[in-house]
Design a protein that fits this description.
This protein is mainly alpha-helical. It has 38 helices and no strands.
Length: 705
């Protein structure tokens, strides 16, 4: 038997240990033998992959391995060699050093039918398969399984499940499904719930929900009862695929037929409701949990806090937080960060800090993420004192600020135009071993661009490259925009060309900045040329691009050309938006073509585009100025019906119209309405110019914010 494997000489100390190992195996002390085998493998000067076959070879040569006559006159079975192989395989698997065990298995399986040494026990091979899977060696696990089958072994359900798991993990779902369907046939063991669960989970992860449902339905056909994991996997798959109702139907089936839903079931359903924005339905599910005496855990609250943070439900978040404290649920750092982020998004940063203090008092250890959330929150509401106070708290707990911390503070300072102080923080970053990120530089470039310090923008762009940070399209875009806002179009074009030379592809926003600058300077023709260059370079023009071009044509009173461009958009895309309509409506009104402007207003409704205050200003101003008071009043009522609240400028238009036509009764009634709404009559004169100037711009004017 020993001649089946190649031999190597063992050291004297290893030989002594080997004799002890053989004695333990002969005495049936398998677990002690495994421990000794582990020590031998770890102390081996050779790689374990070579040592395992050597140890087996040496054990096979000991007197304990020799066949002896039994009392019945037969020969003793090869239990010693089986135990020896099994002990070595188990030791290798437990050490997560499976290569030697794989080599031994190969040698034993390939030794030939006539003189084949006994294979390791099935339980030891199962442990090897599990070790291979835990190490991500899916192909090796599958190969080991196939080798066992080819050598005549009869793997049990556990081994088959591991082989199926290996196929799923490797992405070979067809083979996994095929193996599942071969189980219970041709001598293979029948599948259990685990077998199905592995395949079902893999199919859902691969976005093959339909196939997952088919495999789930096969369980009943094959007499395998789904367990909680099966149901939870199916519910999770349906929920993530957007079919919440299917998830709830399975929950109903669990309540009716069993097994009963557990906390995981409810957490999955709550997560689905939150992602779908159906927050009003979460309370009923929480009540159902309570009726089953089920207490939410920290993950439950994480799900709810995250959902509420998206819908601005700060009050409900605080209520749930109080509820969690009463129930004794420990809020961990992850859940805390979600809660604080939701409060900060709603501007309740001071309250978020109070919540943190409460949690710290009952044992929570704050993390860098938690402190960064508060710092960013304070910066967003321009409370720099609060932000720097949190920074000091962070440092007092010996938590080092990272680039996210500094970027939030730098952004906050730049928003307050405290750019020198922001630069000081960049210096501090370097002193503390924190490297500035591309976002750090982008923030400073944008800040200097907004205050017109164009030279500084270029310096920081150069500094980025010197520090090995490649400027992004955002970096260049901020510089381009800054030059455009200051009327330096040739310089902006030069930066655009530099981007292309450095293989930074400009996006639509970069081109739009220059196109807008051309339009503002009256160079509409150059704007169209650049738009064509943009498309030829592979950058799709956005609706903002076309709105700028529309504005340029309308400024030049080229209404026919503007209408042609507008309807090309309608036919070829991108689809005109409210800004497109407002631009054209305003131009028609300015040209005295009120009828066409009103037609465009009706067209907006037919395409489902809601008019804005700008739309009504242009139309009401034109109708009032033309003395068409009755139509003006009808349009005003339409505006109110659309829940658009009139501003002082709108009232001013109507006051002027009534005054010009001498309708004192309606004039007084309108002034009384203005007084009731707290709108000063004198305010009606102050924003007309600004509104006129902004009516055709792509963005909303500040008057309406």
């Amino acid at each position: 038997m020993s001649r089946l494997l190649p031999r190597r000489r063992l050291s004297s100390s290893a030989a002594a240990s080997l004799r002890d190992l053989a004695s333990l195996l002969s005495a049936g002390r398998f677990h002690r033998a495994v421990d000794l085998a582990k020590s031998l493998l770890l102390s081996s000067p050779n790689s374990p992959g070579a040592t395992v076959p050597d140890l087996y070879n040496a054990l096979a040569a000991t007197p304990d391995a020799a066949d002896e006559p039994t009392e019945q006159g037969g020969r003793r079975p090869h239990s010693f060699l089986c135990d020896a192989a099994s002990a070595l395989v188990v030791a290798s698997a437990r050490l997560c050093l499976p290569d030697g065990a794989l080599r031994l298995l190969t040698l034993l399986a390939d030794s030939g039918a006539g003189a084949r040494a006994p294979l390791p026990s099935l339980s030891s091979c199962n442990l090897l398969l599990e070790s291979l899977l835990s190490l991500g060696r899916h192909a090796d696990a599958r190969a080991a399984f196939d080798r066992l089958v080819a050598a005549g072994a009869r793997p049990d359900t556990f081994a088959w499940n591991k082989a199926v798991q290996a196929c799923v993990a490797a992405g070979d779902l067809e083979e996994a499904v095929g193996m599942l369907r071969r189980m219970g046939r041709d001598g293979a063991p029948a599948p259990d719930a685990f077998s199905f669960n592995v395949v079902i989970a893999g199919l859902w992860r691969a976005a093959r929900g339909g196939d997952a449902v088919k495999v789930f339905d096969e369980m009943a056909e094959r007499g395998v009862a789904p367990n909680r994991i099966t149901f939870n996997t199916m519910i999770d798959g349906h929920v993530k695929a957007g079919d919440l109702e299917a998830g709830f139907r399975l929950r109903d089936r669990m309540l009716r037929d069993g097994p009963k839903p557990n906390l995981i079931t409810y957490n999955v359903l709550l997560s689905g409701l939150c992602r779908a924005g159906r927050m009003d339905e979460t309370r009923a599910l929480l009540n159902e949990m309570a009726s089953h005496r089920m207490v939410p855990d920290g993950f439950t609250y994480s799900i709810l806090f995250d959902g509420l943070s998206r819908t601005g439900g700060s009050k409900t978040m605080l209520s749930l937080f109080g509820e969690s404290l009463k129930k004794g649920v420990m809020i961990e750092a992850y859940t805390c960060s979600i809660l604080l982020n939701g409060l900060c998004k709603d501007g309740m940063v001071a309250k978020a800090e109070q919540v943190l203090q409460m949690l710290v008092h009952i044992g929570l250890v704050p993390t860098r993420v938690i402190y960064n959330t508060l710092i960013n929150g304070y910066c967003q509401i321009q409370d720099l004192q609060g932000a720097f106070s949190i920074l000091q708290q962070m440092k007092s707990r010996h938590i080092r600020p990272d680039h996210i911390t500094y970027n939030a503070l730098i952004n906050g300072l730049c928003k307050m135009e405290m750019i020198t102080e922001a630069e000081g923080l960049v210096t501090e970053m370097g002193q503390n071993g924190v490297n500035p990120s591309v976002e750090t530089f982008n923030t400073l470039i944008d800040a200097y661009g907004r205050v017109g310090q164009l030279e500084k923008c270029l310096i920081f762009l150069s500094d980025m490259e010197e520090k090995g940070i490649k400027p992004t399209v955002v970096s260049y875009g901020s510089v381009v925009n800054a030059f455009c806002k200051n009327g330096k179009i040739p310089e902006a074009i030069a930066i655009l060309d530099d981007m292309l030379r450095k293989h930074v592809l400009p996006n639509a926003q970069v081109y739009n900045s220059i196109i807008d600058a051309y339009i503002e300077s009256g160079a509409t023709e150059q704007a169209f040329v650049l738009a064509e260059k943009m498309k030829s370079s592979g950058v799709s023009a956005s609706i903002v691009t076309y709105n700028l071009l529309l504005k340029g044509l309308c400024k030049n009173s080229q209404i026919a050309e503007a209408e042609e461009l507008f309807y090309n958009l309608r036919n070829k895309g991108p689809v005109p938006d409210v800004v497109s309509y407002n631009t054209l409506i305003s131009a028609c009104c300015n040209m005295g073509n009120i009828g066409r402007a009103l037609e465009l207003n009706q067209e907006m409704f037919s395409y489902g585009i809601k008019p804005t205050l700008k739309t009504y200003y242009a139309l009401l101003n034109a109708l009032g100025g033309a003395g068409r008071v009755h139509e003006m009043e009808n349009l005003y009522q339409q505006m109110l019906h659309k829940n658009i609240v009139p501003c002082s400028t709108i009232y001013g238009i109507m006051v002027d119209a009534y005054a010009r036509c001498g309708n004192e009764a309606k004039l007084e009634a309108l002034k009384e309405e203005m007084t009731e709404k707290g709108i000063a009559i004198n305010d009606t004169e102050r924003t007309n110019f600004d509104l006129d100037r902004s009516i055709a711009s792509p963005g909303d004017c500040t008057v309406f914010k």
